Amino acid sequence: MEKCLLIVESPAKAKTIEKFLGKGYAVAASMGHVRDLPRSQFGVDVEDNFTPKYITIRGKGEILKKLREAAKKADKVYLAADPDREGEAIAWHLAYVLGLEPSAPCRVEFNEITKQAVRDSLKSPRAIDQKRVDAQQARRVLDRLVGYNLSPLLWDKVKRGLSAGRVQSVAVKLICDRQREIDAFQPEEYWTITAQVAKSTREKFSARLVARGGEKLEIKDEAGAQALVSELKRQELHVTDISRRERRKNPHPPFTTSTLQQEAARRLGFTVKKTMSLAQQLYEGLEVGKEGRVGLITYMRTDSTRISPVARREAVEYIERTYGADYKGAGVFTAARGKVQDAHEGIRPTQVTRLPQNLATYLTRDQLRLYTLIWERFLASQMAPAVYDSVTAEIAAGELRLRATGSEVKFRGYTAVYEETRDGEGEEKEAVLPPLVVGEKLTLVRTVPEQHFTQPPPAYTEASLVKTLEEKGIGRPSTYAPTVETILKRGYVTREKKKLKPTELGFLVTDLLSRYFPEIIDVQFTAEMEDKLDRIEEGEAEWRRVVGEFYPAFAEQVRAAKENMEEVHVADEVSDEVCELCGRRMVIKQGRFGKFLACPGFPACRNTKPLREGTGVKCPQCGGEILVKTSRRGRRFYGCENYPECRFVTWDTPTEKRCPRCGSLLVRKESRRREPYLACSNKECRYTEDPAKSPAEPENARQKKVGS
User: Fold this and answer.
1) How far apart are CA 50 and CA 553, in angstroms?
2) Are 371 and 289 in the same domain?
3) CA distance 258 to 537
């Protein structure tokens, strides 16, 4: 019998695949890349047409030794790294170190780790795709040219430990630009008037004042609002027009990498890194009862929404069997915008009949939550649109015009399974209007004028940053998570209540790079470079030429910056805390998980401490001060300074106010579905307080209501 060796990237994947193959196969793991550019050297010979110098990655020697020994014993060696550019490059490097011919049929790839998919791929091995490898080499070399020129420059001119890169620097600039918009924003006051009206049968519904004499109303202040309220109360109300229409809402396509990261952040509260880590586990395979170890989802780094005919057929059969034939949809989607590589399917369960509830005993809570999200989204994508009966009633009150809208579900369609969440406040559900006829007189029950202020653009979250990077063509599915992690790790950005906020260092580095390297952090330039990498993969461009067109102008900018860029000293903030080891006053440093205290005598003195950040609020249990703290996962919470003797903690911002019912501390709550409000920290007491009464409420977020 012929003996074959199949090499994958991870032990988890190897363990899953081993169970699918017979005794003639051995499965081994390369543990990712085995060769790369050296970390301590430039590693690119610019004079020799940008030839990269690859070396064995430190610590991979023993792995390579075992792989070589296994390859010698095998009649055939198959390279089954992930089905993307990076996976193709890993296969290419493995072929080199194992002495395989890249043009021989040694490469296999599969979009899902299931018995059928793995066996089918082994029936049709192919040569290594050199165009994919070249596209990945171009990315690697470009990133090395930029990083190994800009990072030392920042070390010299600003401070040690900084870094810059093609994608990460653009991401930081986007966050800095948005924060500047927020800081410069001037809120403007405006008012709305909602009327509650009633039919003769006393059925009540709400209508919004929208126009006067055919012109849209813009209410600027309270005086204008009260004048309109007075005018409205003097008028007789009657229905002037009723329009009815059927509205169809189409399902969303299956997840791509970007949309999965966005929805997992909004719905589950996962960071981009956590989402990809869990998705990797679901893809590589988990033990599922009698089935054994099996991959639960398809490959999770994709920009395509395409679904295989087999998966589509399986989903339709399940939908017809479970919900009925009327719920079956078209299930075909096209790219909404931009250039899609379409190398893989959209993210879906490998078997739609593997229901989330049946996996609950085998998966961790977070694995199950992510799998459920992927399963529901995929099934819904293959279902029929939801259908609504929408009614709009126009109401006259003299020259004033009010509008009432209502909507009722006629056919649930895909919403029987799944509805996507949205950034911000979420959709406000429309009420169902009572039966109305044109000419019908109505009674004004009451009016509610409401004060509002225009809001600045929202700060980026991880989800909205990934969405923007995708929309602008910056980076690719495999780069989103590393980009976000890098800018947080370098201290250019912090994560505060899920919002990404630039630090002083982030602003400083962005401004320096904008001045001396405008193209490197230009959104359009970076997107065009991604297009060039795609053209290399498609065989329409040669990678050395692409790099050669970029480098001369960049090298000149580096030379000019070394001569002209001013040195900027970023002074550490000195604290009142004295180092007990050497007597120096400790300074405040910015780390991956927030600020901390460090001795300025480093490296002679390596003393560090958590930064004590007070709130000025007394602990309700012992009277100590409540401090701002950071969890192991980087999430802010509030706890008593006397821990562990006092164990008072809360995730919500404490205030000095006390609950009028039970005397407990009031904390500030924030929700996507309503304005910030105060709530009692005692879970048994359900007291809440209107945000307008809160002294901590920002002026531009308050809402004033005046009853009539």
Assistant:
1) 15
2) yes
3) 21
DSSP 3-state of 25: strand
In a domain, 536, yes or no: yes
- List pLDDT tens digits, range 314-325: 999 999 999 999
Enumerate the H helices of 450-570 as residue ranges. Answer: 462-471, 480-489, 504-516, 523-537, 543-564
Q: Are residues 341 and 409 in the same domain?
A: no
Looking at the fold, whether 205 and 285 belong to one and the same domain comes out as no
Indicate if 394 and 410 belong to the same structural domain: yes
Average pLDDT over residues 625-633: 79
243 and 352 assigned to the same domain: no
Average pLDDT of the chain to the nearest whole number: 89
Strand ranges for 111-203 from DSSP E: 189-198
Q: Which residue has the higher pLDDT, 695 or 543?
A: 543
- Whether residues 481 and 548 fall in one domain: yes
- Strands (E) in 199-313, as ranges, are 204-212, 215-216, 237-249, 286-287, 293-294
- Looking at residue 701, what is its pLDDT? 32
The pLDDT assigned to 478 comes to 85
646 part of a folded domain = no
Beta bridge partners of 126: 107
Mean pLDDT comparison of 275-279, 493-497, 594-598, highest-scoring range:
275-279
Question: What predicted TM-score, i.e. pTM, was given to this entire model?
Answer: 0.81
Q: Which residues pair with residue 287 across a beta bridge?
A: 293
Is the pLDDT confidence value at 684 over 90?
A: no
70 φψ region: left (φ > 0), alpha (ψ -120 to 50), beta (else): alpha
694 pLDDT above the threshold of 80: no
- What are the distances in angstroms from CA 510 to CA 163, 261, 378, 460? 11, 26, 40, 17
204 pLDDT higher than 60: yes
pLDDT at residue number 149: 94
Range of the domain at 220: 189-250+386-453
- Residue 308 within a domain: yes
Contact yes or no for 3/73 (Cβ under 8 A): yes
Nearest to 298 by CA among 359, 349, 252: 349
With a CB cutoff of 8 Å and minimum separation 6, the contacts of 524 are none
Give the containing element (helix H, strand E) for 679: strand 674-680
Single-letter amino acid, residue 487 = I
Q: Is residue 209 part of a domain?
A: yes
Predicted confidence at residue 708, as pLDDT, reads 33
**What is the band of 421 on the pLDDT scale with cuts at 50, 70, 90?**
confident
The residues annotated as belonging to the active site are 299
The torsion angles phi and psi of 299, rounded to 5 degrees, stand at -55, 135
Question: Long-range contact list for 160-168, CB < 8 A, 24+ apart?
Answer: 161/490, 162/490, 162/505, 162/509, 163/486, 163/490, 164/509, 164/513, 164/520, 165/486, 166/142, 166/520, 166/526, 166/529, 167/469, 167/474, 167/475, 167/479, 167/483, 167/526, 168/483, 168/486, 168/487, 168/490
155-172 burial, b at 16+ Cβ within 10 Å, e below that, comes to eebbbeebbbbbbbbbbb
**What is the separation of C-alpha 704 from the centre of its chain, rounded to a whole number of angstroms?**
34
CATH number at residue 357: 1.10.290.10
Please tell me whether residue 325 adopts helix, strand or coil conformation.
helix
Mean pLDDT of 690-696: 50
Q: What is the count of structural domains for the chain?
A: 5
Do 355 and 266 share a structural domain?
A: yes
Residue 617: enclosing H or E segment and its boundaries? strand 613-618
Domain identity same for 213 and 119: no
Sign of the dihedral defined by the CA atoms of residues 509, 511, 514, 516, in that order: negative
For residue 99, what is the domain's CATH number? 3.40.50.140
Last residue of a domain, one of 504, 539, 564: 564
Asked if the model's pLDDT at residue 53 lies above 90, the reply is yes
Provide the pLDDT for residue 316. 96
pLDDT tens-digit readout, 550-581: 999 999 999 999 999 998 877 777 887 889 89
